[in-house]
Amino acid sequence: MNYGQIIYTDVANGIGCRTSLFVSGCTHHCKGCFNEMTWDFNYGELFTNAVEDEIIESLKPAYINGITILGGEPMEVANQKVLSPFIKRIKDECPGKTIWIYSGYVWEELTDPNNKRCHGEDTDAILSMTDILVDGEFILDKKDLMLRFRGSSNQRVIDVQETLKSGNIVLSKYNDRDESRKA
Fold it and tell me: Which of 26, 92, 101, 35 minimizes the C-alpha distance to 68?
């Protein structure tokens, strides 16, 4: 897997101060995508053990809330194979840090074992370790700058752990509009 960028001390892609990993590779090709260069699976740098180590170290300070994984598309099956053991390592070495994932795939696609486009042998493990999933493709016609942590109104901010417990999609409290952005 390649990655396009890592942002340390990011405050835009989730709650609190976070490390954000932008993976490479995406088959959605959403019109108006803010990160079009990451569609190419070969874009950027190789995600190595040394890079993993740097990210793990960046998560250790108390003021870092967790990691956000976006892209590109983290939930492409090829990316899941690398991300699953990495997320497990984060959970083991940085307990209490939250995991946010942005995916153009919706929950229903990710949890459908017959959907081979995005559901692979690592999908369930990744979701079991994820706190928040922002799901759905970016749709330019539904772009809304007043939304928190998402770009278009079709996207959902899902509380994954509560969703897994209940068996029904549970939207996160962060699924609301950001009224503080009004002029």
Answer: 101
